[in-house]
Amino acid sequence: MAIEEEILQATLAASQKLYGQAPDVKALQLSATRKEFEGDLTLVVFPLLKLSHKKPEETAEDLGKELVANVEAVSGYNVIKGFLNLCISKSNWIDTVNSIAADPHFGIVEATADSPLYMVEYSSPNTNKPLHLGHVRNNLLGHSVCQILKANGIKVVKTNIVNDRGIHICKSMLAWKLFGNGETPESTGKKGDHLVGDYYVRFDKEYRAQVKDLVAKGMAEDDAKKEAPLMKEAQQMLEKWEAGDPEVRALWEKMNNWVYEGFDKTYKRLGISFDKIYYESQTYLDGKAKVNEGLEKGVFYRRPDGSVWADLAKDGLDEKLLLRADGTSVYMTQDIGTAQQRFRDYNIDKMIYVVGNEQNYHFQVLSILLDRLGFEWGKDLVHFSYGMVELPEGKMKSREGTVVDADDLMDEMIRTAKETSGDKLKDYSAEEVDNIARICGLGALKYFILKVDPRKNMMFNPKESIDFNGNTGPFIQYTYARIRSVIRKAADAGLQVPARLEAKYELSERETQLVQNLASFPQAVKQAGKDYSPAFIANYCYDLAKAYNQFYHDFSILKEENADAQQFRLLLSSLIANTIKTGMELLGIEVPERM
Q1: How far is CA 26 from CA 30, 66, 152, 496, in A?
Q2: 444 and 556 in contact (C-beta within 8 Å)?
Q3: Start-to-end Cα distance in the chain
Q4: DSSP 32
Q5: Which residues contact 430 (CB under 8 A, 6 or more apart)?
Q6: pLDDT at 46 over 70
Q7: pLDDT (tens digit, 9 = 90+) per residue, 520-577?
Q8: Which residues of 541-561 are buried (b: 16+ CB within 10 A; e: fewer)?
Q9: Quick one: 236 exposed, middle or buried, by C-beta within 10 A (0-12, 13-18, 19+)?
Q10: 1, 133, 265, 318: which one has the fewest Cβ atoms less than 10 Å from its Cβ?
Q11: DSSP readout, 485-514?
């Protein structure tokens, strides 16, 4: 049992003994003691005051005496108002290191047959354009959340819903049909998703020109947007698609396949994968059927123009369109059908949607509608709402072609990593240089995005992310490589990392703090899983790497003459490297063995 868990359990027992009842363990707060105070761990006693009916200082004194008497590792204590600072015996930290060394899955909880099953949806691309920086944040957050949930003993199904139909898809199809001259990814040398995305931009350019021309002829702008020939033709194409028109369907399938091949290459580079992919074209009919069922039951209503709506006034919201007047569906219809299919395919305990915060209203409504339709799990849906990625130049706009393309971004990050390394890799082979540049470039990108609280908007700056100093991916990767270098040099000198230590080495204060940092990894994993926040793991890895580098600067390892000290530092270094690697894996980030 970890010392933190032992202290919490002992506190419950002490409270029961002293006050006749124990608090909920979740109410207890135990953390590392602040540097300006004496002690190693601090217990906040305020949650116990309603049980003790005493002043904070008196309650802390009561508990301090009990913990010293009953927890062997607690060697002393001091009280600062409502805070009980506990001193942990030096030998206990040796025991902690040995306990971590004996656990090959330190910090990770293995799932069992009884573990809950969560489904996490992320990516959700449209097949009218390639993946961009916004998709990168979505994919990285979704993948990392899945990794973190698994590390908390939860079974996970990684899923994607591809928005492969709708008016936006028809815009690309129509533009290619009118202006493409039969070109293909093979004939142009472009990735399929990029080629199709070019025609989405082309549609918007031609459409704007038509609207401008109609306005110049005296038509109101709103009317011009509806009456522009291109938009009307795109609407007609959508109607033909829903009617199963063979020519339109054949064009749709061909262009979507181009896009899928492009997506797969981008996902592979990002290290992203899915267990199950759903397609809107295969779910929207289920959604329409459920909407019509709701219409028959009076859950929804039809307007005179034939469109179907949900009245959400009693939920404090407005009305929501579910089927257009022409019978075509909207995103909400598709999401209803997809949710039904998912819970039919898997016995899911929880459904988590990783979608940007601009869709907060959408998922609030989806939860209400599913509940009204009789799905018991409707109210329990989780919308992991994350902030937008912004650029120094402003927001990205797909239709205007002002997005940061995911493939171009990865190329730039890898190229910058290679340039930044300078002479550091001059003795490495070209193949190894390319691999390290790839690992560091993508690591910089992923870490820069994941270290930010996911619920906040973020400003992306590639130059800041690639820095080998400060709170960056390359800094943590370099720390890992540095430790691995120490271990290799030790082996060359005939020194082996011990499997365990004897409790006879007196740790310094800096070493004690470093062991505490290492030992808090399981709590970081647990908190990250509770809050669906990779930022907890990212910042834990940075704090651990920073603490190790300070230790490395101040303490000798290979040249240490005290054999016990040397053995302790070698084992501690090895465990920190392992934990950094595990933590970075939870973020989907590789670490190089040398750099």
Answers
A1: 10, 20, 17, 41
A2: no
A3: 37
A4: E
A5: none
A6: yes
A7: 999 999 999 999 999 999 999 999 999 999 999 999 999 999 999 999 999 999 999 9
A8: bbebbbbbbebbeeeebeeee
A9: middle
A10: 1
A11: HHHHHHHHTT----SS--TT----HHHHHH
List of residues 6+ apart from 186 with CB closer than 8 A = none
Question: Per residue in 234-279, pLDDT tens?
Answer: 999 998 998 999 999 999 999 999 999 999 999 999 999 999 999 9
User: What residue ranges of the chain are covered by domains with CATH 3.30.1360.70?
Assistant: 3-88
Q: Which CATH architecture has domain 3-88?
A: 2-Layer Sandwich (3.30)
**CA 21 remoteness from chain centre:** 40
**Domain 122-390 = CATH 3.40.50.620:** yes
DSSP assignment letter at 405: B
Name residue, tokens 């003994």. 17
Please state whether beta strands 83-88 and 74-80 pair in parallel, antiparallel, or not at all (unpaired): antiparallel
Q: Where are the alpha helices (DSSP H) in 71-191?
A: 90-101, 133-151, 167-179, 185-188
Neighbours of 366 (CB within 10 A): 21
Q: What is the CA angle 253-259-260, rounded to 5?
A: 85
CA distances for 213 relative to 205, 229, 235, angstroms = 13, 11, 20
Length of the chain: 595
**Residue 229: Cβ within 10 Å count:** 11
Kindly provide the b/e burial profile for residues 498-532, where b requires at least 16 CB atoms within 10 angstroms of the residue's own CB: beebeeebebeeebbbbbbbbbbbbbbbbbbbeeb
Helix (H, G, I), strand (E, B) or coil at 43: strand
* CA atoms of 35 and 236, how far apart (whole Å): 69
Cα 138–Cα 540–Cα 271 angle in degrees, nearest 5: 35
Helix (H, G, I), strand (E, B) or coil at 160: strand
Cα 526 to Cα 461: distance, rounded to the nearest angstrom: 30
CATH code of the region 406-586: 1.10.730.10
| Cα separation, 436 vs 420, whole angstroms | 12
**Residue intervals in the chain for CATH 3.40.50.620:** 122-390
Q: What is the pTM of this model?
A: 0.89
Q: For 265-318, list the strands marked E by DSSP.
A: 276-279, 301-302, 308-311
- The 10s digit of each residue's pLDDT in 113-164 is 999 999 999 999 999 999 999 999 999 999 999 999 999 999 999 999 999 9
- Bridge partners (DSSP) of residue 85 are 42, 78
Alpha-carbon distance of 555 to 513, in angstroms, equals 14
Question: Token digits for 160?
Answer: 């994607």
Quote the tokens at residue 69: 């008497």
SS3 call for 499: coil
| Burial bucket for residue 121 (CB in 10 Å: 0-12, 13-18, 19+) | buried
Amino acid 145 reads V
| Residue position matching structure tokens 């690591």 | 443
Rounded to whole angstroms, the Cα distance separating 250 from 173 reads 11
